[in-house]
Amino acid sequence: MSTVTTATPVYRSPPGLLHTLLLAGAVPLFLGALLSDIAYHNTYQIQWSNFASWLLAGAELFAGLALLGALVGLVRAPRKGGQPLTYFLLLLVTWVLGLVNAFQHAKDAWAVMPAGLVLSIIVTILILVTAWIGLQPRAGGVQ
After folding, report:
1. Rounded to an integer, what distance in angstroms lies between the CA atom of residue 51 and that of residue 43?
2. Where are the alpha helices (DSSP H) in the chain?
3. Packing angle of the helix pair 83-105, 17-43 (nearest 10 deg)
4. How far is CA 9 from CA 18, 21, 124, 136, 142, in A?
5. pTM listed for this prediction
6. Which tens digits make up the pLDDT trace of 65-119?
7. Which residue ranges does the record assign to the DUF2231 domain (predicted)?
């Protein structure tokens, strides 16, 4: 006598290609903003601060659209806790701190440092963790 066990999906349908591209697209933009902040911190060339501002704007757009997709995935999930909720909350915190970072970068170039660099480090770490969790296979426990 054998028993068959199947994994129950956490989502009714996995995140689509667009959601994956939006989430994965936010990672290099936040990383580019961090690298631009490091370059600005080392050289004090104001253009690096401008680069970081534009990269943050793009990252916020990608992360915001991915956040909408995560919200839809959370609403559609049969179980509202666990990985979908963790992913949504991490992406929400990342987006909010990224917005605060964008506001910090909207200041005069000399007023950006050091808070802009610290926020860029935090947001980059958060988006890496969020992408790691968000792009993992979504399967529940074995029944």
Report:
1. 14
2. 17-43, 46-76, 83-105, 115-134
3. 40
4. 20, 21, 29, 13, 10
5. 0.84
6. 999 999 998 888 777 677 889 999 999 999 999 999 999 999 988 899 999 999 9
7. 18-136
